[in-house]
Design brief:
With about 35 residues, this protein is of the alpha+beta class. It is about 35% helix and about 30% strand. The longest helix has 12 residues.
Length: about 35
């Protein structure tokens, strides 16, 4: 499954990492590079 995470602060980054560990394709977006 492809998952987009909008906002990669503490919660967004943790969520993205966990979803990637489960085998999902994850991309994260944030306004602060």
């Amino acid at each position: 499954m492809r998952i987009s995470v909008i906002g990669t602060g503490y919660l967004g980054a943790t969520h993205a990492a966990c979803m990637a560990d489960l085998g999902h394709e994850v991309i994260g977006f944030d306004v602060d590079p």
